[in-house]
Amino acid sequence: xxxxxxxxxxxxxxxxxxxxxxxxxxxxxxxxxxxxxxxxxxxxxxxxxxxxxxxxxxxxxxxxxxxxxxxxxxxxxxxxxxxxxxxxxxxxxxxxxxxxxxxxxxxxxxxxxxxxxxxxxxxxxxxxxxxxxxxxxxxxxxxxxxxxxxxxxxxxxxxxxxxxxxxxxxxxxxxxxxxxxxxxxxxxxxxxxxxxxxxxxxxxxxxxxxxxxxxxxxxxxxxxxxxxxxxxxxxxxxxxxxxxxxxxxxxxxxxxxxxxxxxxxxxxxxxxxxxxxxxxxxxxxxxxxxxxxxxxxxxxxxxxxxxxxxxxxxxxxxxxxxxxxxxxxxxxxxxxxxxxxxxxxxxxxxxxxxxxxxxxxxxxxxxxxxxxxxxxxxxxxxxxxxxxxxxxxxxxxxxxxxxxxxxxxxxxxxxxxxxxxxxxxxxxxxxxxxxxxxxxxxxxxxxxxxxxxxxxxxxxxxxxxxxxxxxxxxxxxxxxxxxxxxxxxxxxxxxxxxxxxxxxxxxxxxxxxxxxxxxxxxxxxxxxxxxxxxxxxxxxxxxxxxxxxxxxxxxxxxxxxxxxxxxxxxxxxxxxxxxxxxxxxxxxxxxxxxxxxxxxxxxxxxxxxxxxxxxxxxxxxxxxxxxxxxxxxxxxxxxxxxxxxxxx
Amino acid sequence: xxxxxxxxxxxxxxxxxxxxxxxxxxxxxxxxxxxxxxxxxxxxxxxxxxxxxxxxxxxxxxxxxxxxxxxxxxxxxxxxxxxxxxxxxxxxxxxxxxxxxxxxxxxxxxxxxxxxxxxxxxxxxxxxxxxxxxxxxxxxxxxxxxxxxxxxxxxxxxxxxxxxxxxxxxxxxxxxxxxxxxxxxxxxxxxxxxxxxxxxxxxxxxxxxxxxxxxxxxxxxxxxxxxxxxxxxxxxxxxxxxxxxxxxxxxxxxxxxxxxxxxxxxxxxxxxxxxxxxxxxxxxxxxxxxxxxxxxxxxxxxxxxxxxxxx
Lengths: 648, 311
Fold this sequence. Notes:
The structure holds 2 protein chains of 2 kinds.
Chain A: H1 10-24, H2 33-51, H3 59-77, H4 82-97, H5 104-124, H6 128-149, H7 155-168, H8 170-179, E1 204-205, E2 219-225, E3 236-242, E4 244-245, E5 250-251, E6 257-258, E7 271-277, E8 287-288, E9 291-293, E10 298-301, E11 306-308, E12 316-322, H9 334-339, H10 349-361, H11 365-378, E13 382-383, H12 394-402, E14 404-405, H13 407-420, E15 425-432, E16 435-436, E17 443-446, E18 450-458, E19 462-466, H14 468-472, H15 474-478, H16 481-484, H17 500-521, H18 525-534, H19 542-571, H20 573-587, H21 598-608, H22 613-628, H23 633-644
Parallel strand pairs in A: 13-14
Antiparallel strand pairs in A: 1-5, 2-7, 2-17, 3-8, 3-15, 4-5, 6-10, 7-12, 9-12, 10-11, 15-18, 16-17, 18-19
Helix pairs in contact in A: 1-2, 1-5, 1-6, 2-4, 3-4, 4-5, 5-6, 6-7, 8-19, 10-11, 10-13, 12-13, 20-22, 20-23, 21-22, 22-23
Chain B: H1 4-20, H2 25-36, E1 40-44, H3 51-62, E2 66-70, H4 77-81, E3 82-87, E4 92-97, E5 104-108, H5 115-127, E6 129-132, E7 135-138, E8 144-149, H6 162-165, E9 168-172, H7 179-187, H8 191-197, H9 204-215, H10 221-236, H11 246-262, H12 270-281, H13 290-293, H14 297-307
Parallel strand pairs in B: 1-8, 1-9, 2-5, 5-8
Antiparallel strand pairs in B: 3-4, 6-7
Helix pairs in contact in B: 1-2, 1-3, 2-11, 3-8, 9-11, 10-11, 11-12, 12-14
């Protein structure tokens, strides 16, 4: 039997348009601009046509549009398959299918496409904001589906219905989330350059070549301390160590990396913490200086850099213990020390002369170091994020002429001065400080907390951290950047301290985002295994997990069904008895029609089965009176007896 | 327990009417249910199947003061409501009440009149009063309109719009009599004469008592659930352009109560609702598709009933 196609009402066309728009919109930033524009134009045109109650575009126009769109996507991606081209094709389909939707069947196709398209948003971003957008899109799409069933319902009613239905699906959502077998890594291969835009520290620095340091609020990593965190002036998060210097640029040296620590650590005074590192596309990990226990699958270099095996392209969580003063490197390689003393032959004569002066005054390296620190303090250097550019002798110019710079200038000049005095020294980059979020207790370290400091080798003591920025500007370390930067310097908006409500809001938002990252995005195969073994499933393989999944879903379904049945029964005991009696008749093939009233049904049964005619009429009469009339107490008991005796 | 009196009275009326209108007991019961539920009745069918006789019989049986208006296309509202005439002796205008000032008005072939004249009648039906020349005059109590009409596709008719059809509690169709009844009809005396000779079966206090008894018939929550399900279905089904209004739902309950009373019960069953549904609901629903346009009222009602489970 072919059913006549049911035409779409204008309200249904609007619903479809809104659902399509909500499904396409979150993808717009990730599509080629021409496709986003074309999709927006197609949706706008559809809106205009619906508003004018105009007919659909002609078939030829549609064919041309589909061919043009497909050709465009083919030209862009050289394929119609794969993730990116596939999403682009889906966007094209949704935008154009709306233009040929005239019957309910077309509407259903659009709804299906919208659901699928909404899901593809997660290819590009799994942030909470995108999840919220997706939820909105799914609610509207479901409301659209409901409107296709009944186009005359008011929008608020449909939205409420859709939201309630999705809320009722929450148990299944939880079960599937917790139990669905997880694969590590994305299901679809991401393009190789997907992480190129990630921000973070680089592996070299050239103070003097940057006149304006752009500061970003982006989060570098979050830290949860076991117990009290160390004091703020000990919060140095070690990153790349820069030993090589060619006169302008500091660089890493190829240092050997190994799975053990190259130094020994005291047993006590450890700060245990867990770092959740945002992807930065570089191999190094950050930890409180200096790590005392390595996280699994990590390496330690000879110059004490913590490395992951591969570049960090996904949010990563690892536990570390650190000791803030392990006296590392007391027996340092001669090779390493000579690298840490190397300077170019020429350049920066003034600081070389000054260093020679210090050396002449003191024989002891430690005294030279102290002299250098106090000299830096006396120089009255200015901390600024917008220093002037420096010429061929950047250290001299910075120390004696411009006297303006940021931590990289300070660290670079300081290390140069010490090397000129013959003391091994190197630049360490990383982050300093961070902010405790009072809402969830996590310490948040942002890109704007990036810092560079110096490390000096003293015989018998090993490498000692010396922060020339702290020497000149203790506030930079005790508070944060905003405390030392002159007013008017560009600072990340959120670092301004004079908006307490904004800070509070930021703390809260951070805590929520962090929770999302920790529990939703961070629900990795390992976490799933942990959870399941805690639930007593040992180390489950995917078969057992699938079984558990099916059992749990079935259980929820059964529970809901029983609950619904109970609700129905609890409403009216007479109804339950009546159902019991009619169920027996249904087994004999004379069950009631859904629409049949009790008395009419009894008459039908009586005609078919004269032997039970009296019994069924009595039961129907009692039931009818109990359910629809003004019964007294005794009648329920009577019905119960009648039904008990009823053996058709 | 149900008072036996209303039930017996009603049986008596049905039996008396059945002696005039042959083989149409179900329609008679529906018509009587409509009247004791204080509703106006519309009888629609082809000419010659006994619409006017039925209306006549009902009027006689209820023992009420009775006027008949034959609607024609040249009729004016004043022909129904009445007119003020200058009385020379008294030296002022006197209102001469029209045929509407009657306890039962038989409006024959109501769809032959122009919409203007129809609306004069229909306003009276709704308000139970008449406004003419600035004076509002109450109509007698009780007040019933029994209207008859030909199917709207007949030539020379002005079909009643939905809003006015809504004022009739019920619309019933008579249909052709079966063979036996028709034979009896052909062999017997003229039905009109029989109807004229019919003695009233009811006094006015008895009628009022019946109407009050209808009000006290129990409507259980489970039954209201059912009525609401029916109404909700008409609102969501694509068969109709618009669903039943709350007024229509009220009409369903009122008519079902009257039907239950005729059936001798003091509570309403889903079967009662199903029995009156074709008469009460279908003329208020406007079909949306070609297919349902061709369906008879009984078929449409059956589809509606079979689509909604009894809760």
